[in-house]
Prior knowledge:
The complex is a heterodimer.
Chain A: E1 2-13, E2 16-28, E3 33-37, H1 44-52, E4 60-69, E5 72-73, H2 79-84, E6 90-93, H3 107-118, H4 124-134, H5 153-165, E7 171-175, H6 183-200, E8 203-208, H7 211-217, E9 220-225, E10 228-234, H8 235-240, H9 245-253, E11 301-304, E12 307-310
Chain B: H1 2-26, H2 34-39, H3 45-55, H4 61-73, H5 87-122, H6 127-141, H7 144-158, H8 183-209, H9 212-220, H10 224-261, H11 267-276, H12 280-308
Amino acid sequence: MLAVDDLVVSVVTSLGSLDIVRGVSFQIAPGEILGLVGESGSGKSMTSLAVMGLLETPRTRVTSGRIAIDGADITHATPYERVRKGNGDIAMIFQEPMTSLNPVRRIGDQIAEAIKVHDPKADVRARTQELMDLVRLPDSALQHGAYPHELSGGMRQRVMIAIALACRPKVLIADEPTTALDVTVQLQILGLLRDLCDRLDMGILFITHDLGVVSQLADRVAVMYAGQIVETGSVRTIFSAPLHPYTAGLMACVPDPSTGHAPLVTIPGQAPRPDEVPPGCPFSPRCSRADTPCRSGPVPTVRAGDHAALCHFPLNEELVHA
Amino acid sequence: MLGFIVKRTGAALATLVAASVLIFMFIHLIPGEPAAVMLGDAATPEQVAALRTRLGLDEPLIIQYFYWAGNALQGDLGRSIFFDEPVTTVIADGAETSILLASITMIWVVLIGVPVGVIAAMRRGSWLDQGLSGLAMLLASIPTFWVGLYLILVFAAQLGWLPSSGYPSIFDEGGLANLRYLILPSLALATPNAALILRLTRASMLDVSKEDYVRTARAKGISPRQVTVRHILRNALLVVVSAFGFTFAALISEAVVTETVFALPGIGRTVVQSILRRDYPVIQGVILVIVCLYLVLNLLVDISYRFLDPRVELE
Lengths: 322, 315
């Protein structure tokens, strides 16, 4: 199980040190998919890179909080350090399958490299075949020593998943893995991820800005805004009864085909830059429900079952218990 | 692969034809009567007329070109006016020195420029990187003749380790030990070029290290050294290899100066002397040979590029 506790990630800029992830906590159980949703700049990618140990240190680094996998602290560990300590069981796939594979090395070699890091004595050929079957890559994809540019985007993302699975991960981080793909291919990749999650009993941290994708794929959702998780809960409860006005705003933005050509809804204003986060609730300047308490001081956590949000004036208030 | 080579060779040949026209026309850009200019003030009208006939200057221009180009294809680049020898013989006399000088220089450029560039990139921002990058900037901006003079001053005049001038052939007495005559000149010639390759390697390494696939490689958990060698360096070298073709062109023009400073009997010095002697057939011949060398080298760079980068299509 992956546990992230009160994670703070800071970046050093010309304006000084800025916190871009501000106290994020979540857990992912085996076989569970957590959808981490937010606009660009909300800190969701930084959170995932921090968990993976791929932050561009020393400019960007974890300044407080703890990341642990099955109890082992991996807070500042790079993937190399994790593998050497036997905690190599987190893997990641990225947004751009087109640029995420080395263009001048054969695909087979790139998969083999990942296999050998985690098990130098592995039968590379058999294991490659096993991984290709898992991600449903046709044998032809590796024939004649193919290079990445000879494959389609969807095939390349399957190769990326195969590379990620080489370490038999307990947790897979997927950072917008379908955003760059065609819609039909998107669905195939989402189906594959769901299937792998169930078959391998692997947790997935699925990062996206697309609520529609989350509703189809995830078990639980965490909504990020300005470096914080503002609402978290199971997919069913969040979509049926959101507590945080930002979550409700995001859902209103998803066009509903049944309403015909209704005007597209947007949330007024834009997310604050890390150097301009307002005091109090960071969403208050854009929130229609905001009042005096929202503009200063700490924001309370409200709960409804497994469902929690950071808000003074939550929606669906009747569900909230003290 | 074969189709790729044929296509690139065809392009090189087309360039060669264009270059040959320019080189041929060069003799007609001389103001006034070329034969009279070549022979100087003391020449009699009879001598001028004889040279005109010998150079074929009485024929129409187009005929002259085909005559000249046809001979060049058969390995006849005309006769030197000064030496009264075939131009090919004059070039061959300087070829050994120049080829060895260029080769040794390229070895320095690769052996110094690439590894030091990699080290600077891996230690980006450190005092070592800043020192090396600053030094490279300085060395790239110093003219070769000045570096050459300094090397002579220190290693030849003061320390007496290496000879300062001349070059006896390796086929003469002394054999391969005669190569020591080329150490200082090649170092002088290599200095600015190695500095440029160093900076290019460093910049290219830093560019590639920001690529998504380098992040993928890091995510696999392989060691930082493996990330650098297998993923960053391999791709960074694509840019550096293509720069070798340009480095060679710079080398040729700088070799002219270096051969003069070190009194080397190379093609560069032959060119300088031929210009002073207005020995136009030699100048034309040397330029034609240099163009051919340049084209062959760039063809080799293109072909090696195909092996390094599978994305270069085999059209």
